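FORM 7B: Structural annotation worksheet

SECTION A. Query
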Amino acid sequence: MEAEAKAPGLTARVTAAIDLARQVGRAASAFRDSGALNVENKGLQDFVTIADRRAEDTIRTTLARLFPDDGFLGEEGGGTPGGKGFWVVDPIDGTTNYIRGFRHWGVSMAYVADGEIRIGVIYDAAVDKVYSAVKGQGAFKDGKAIRASSVSDPAQALAILGHSRRTDFAVYQGVSQRLYDLGIDYRRMGAAAIGLVRVADGIADLYYEQHLNGWDMIAGALIAREAGAMVAMPPLAASLSEGGPIIAGATGLAAQFAFLADIAGPDCVALP
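SECTION B. Predicted structure
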């Protein structure tokens, strides 16, 4: 019991993750400017760079040193979630943007314990700031509390949509058309984690994507939920093993966004 009492808790983990995400994000920005990315194709319009791998290695080794009992699952290097808690990491979310110098990319880190997302941390390269949340304690940007949008008029609303080649483009077109018909403006920016913190920060009123991998969405999902947004996604185990859709939106527009639940399907459930 004494050893358990001395084990690092959520405060130690979120503090370390904030510092680490900022460090890794800034290093990746500097590395991109060096012109030595060594881009490889994982698939059509699906890239990985040496910067992704270096960032994930830095995060993995640092977390292992600080929290040796924690498991680790990374987009590039994989891993096996285990122990009482584990980290889920996308070292550079929005790699295509990163490669091309479009600064809508970030570093996404989540900590999972007892079957719940307990910590979400995302470095936003566009503004050089870190968004963070601990379950039940609110959402923050560089330590300052943030809240999701209070917009309730669809004519004033802004949505961000995501799309990948894992899903039918017709679904994306259909969602775009429905939002257009509702009078809602929309964007596609190419980095889910950053789209989700835009909702958390009240900059956008919706983020929707038909399929994401778990490392793309769970940190941002927690941050958006803690900021007061409504968030729906598959249960955590399914999100990590198979991925799926995500809806994160302003509560004042719940009626306008209700159609998305039918598109996402019954396995997309509210994040408590």
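SECTION C. Observations
Residues 1-6, 42-47 have pLDDT under 50 and may be disordered. The two ends are 30 Å apart (CA to CA).

SECTION D. Sign-off
Analyst initials: ____
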